[in-house]
Amino acid sequence: MDLSKVSISLVVASCDVIRGEVVATTLYPNNFIGELPMFDFHTYYIKEESCLLNVDMENLLPSYPKHVKLSVGLHPWNVSETWQETVASIRKVASRDDVWAIGECGLDKVHGEPHPLQMEVQMAAFRAQIAIAEEVQKPMVIHCVRAFDELLMLRRELEASCKREDREPQPWVIHGFRGKPEQAKQMMTKGFFLSFGHHCNIETLRWVFTSSRPFYLETDDLHLSVRQIYEQAAHHLGVDVSRLVHLCDPRKTLFSHQNP
Ligand SMILES: [Zn+2]
Hints:
TIM Barrel
């Protein structure tokens, strides 16, 4: 990439459409030789590996490099009085081809010690995003801290309404899952998928691995390569990384209908 072209593209407003691609092509030229096989299920930063990049509406660019797919949502920490406006703008971009999931969104009973009224607002914002995911038929990336009963209740609600309409609800993936094996079992039997990061419970990871259900790996907000997370998981499971690359690739499961 010619550096003069890069600087021109970055300063000229009409080049907004390709800004993301120019930055990434410059930073990661190797991506464009071929897609790297590992998939980072949840990250806040564009890196070399294929990923589901979590973006909020303020930081959403018109386009991204091909190996970056997006999840757009309103995080429960950021739910404010203006949440309805934010959710309306999420609705507007939810059908974009590079938006593969809605989220991260969900419920958090710990961060900022929310009082019951704030929890009600979190719940309303989450419900509105569930409706978007159903409308555009895309999976959800869920943030859940000490609100698993509420999460299960919302899932039951969704399943009941889908049943009435004779259709399947979209899959929900709980990201950064740190619960014990019993909780993983409970959530998975209710149809949830789990994604694990650096701080996961190793016993839970082992249990999920033996369950032969798909699971995912992520860097979340860490400035790590997802390769490190794959290697850490492979070490704990006593398997080869290549086995996890196959097993933990959401392009083969959740996103199999999307164009890569
Ligand atoms: Zn989260």
